[in-house]
Amino acid sequence: MQKVLELKNITKSFNKMKVLNNISFSLYSNEIIAILGDNGAGKSTLIKTLSGLVHADSGEMLVNSKKIDIKKYSISQARENGIETVYQDNSLGLEQEIHRNIFLGREITNIFGFIDIKKQKIESMKLLKGFLGLKGLGLNSSSEVSSLSGGERQGLVIARAVYFDAKLVILDEPTRSLAIKEVKKVLDFIKELKNHNKSAIFITHNILHAYEVCSRFILIDRGEIKADINKSDISVQDLQNKLINIESL
Ligand SMILES: Nc1ncnc2c1ncn2[C@@H]1O[C@H](COP(=O)(O)OP(=O)(O)O)[C@@H](O)[C@H]1O
Ligand SMILES: [Mg+2]
């Protein structure tokens, strides 16, 4: 199986406090894994390191078997390497039209260099109907983002990552503060990533959500990996117990 990502001994400190301590793991193509851990465990710092927002102090990172210069790594480099991140507050402009949002910073332009609005709208509609399966009355690519439900907004960001052909989609607590119905939508979108041959890292507090969509679980506590377990080797109850007793692992 092809390795999409490999981390070796990634370490990061803030004010002399080690927030990530020798983090090592690999992620394979078409694999959806969860990173589980309590508040302050280092989950967000880890994914910020992967998405170019935070520079690791030491360690190695390989994306598609290519070594990354961790000191020079940036958000745009992460994107160039096919890594897209979906944050909890998915940074969508609510009053912005959907098609503008999808193509923000990566606009489709015509031969004169102007934004090709018509093409953007057509492509956006394909995404809304295809990936998101939206048939909402009156909903179209010129609707404001605010007309989408919470789950659909997360779906939009996931669909955008698929459109731009991300290899790895990182999701930081995408189901937090969503209603149950909306959670289901987001979990379905994450599952859909597999059908598009993508890999994903799903960060969540909710073990049930992780267990439903992930095939492997990495448990972290105070910046260290405490367990890396395949779904086939653990029940949801045992996973829960492990997480509760993580300090003794
Ligand atoms: N920019 C920063 N400066 C200083 N400390 C930080 C910064 N970002 C995170 N931390 C600290 O690092 C630790 C891990 O935080 P974080 O990665 O956000 O954990 P999690 O996402 O698992 O809740 C926490 O103690 C947090 O206070
Ligand atoms: Mg966090």
Give an overview of the whole structure.
The radius of gyration is 19 Å and the shape is globular. Helix content is 31%, strand content 26%. It has helices spanning 43-50, 75-80, 98-102, 117-129, 150-163, 180-195, 207-213, 236-244, and strands spanning 3-14, 17-28, 32-36, 58-63, 66-67, 83-86, 168-172, 199-204, 216-221, 224-230. The protein has a domain at 3-85 and 169-248: Rossmann fold, CATH 3.40.50.300. With 249 residues, the chain is an alpha/beta fold. The protein binds adenosine-5'-diphosphate (ADP) and magnesium ion. Magnesium ion binds at residues 43-44.
Task: Describe, in short, the structure shown.
This protein has about 250 residues and is of the alpha/beta class. The protein has a domain at about 5-85 and about 170-249: Rossmann fold (3-Layer(aba) Sandwich).
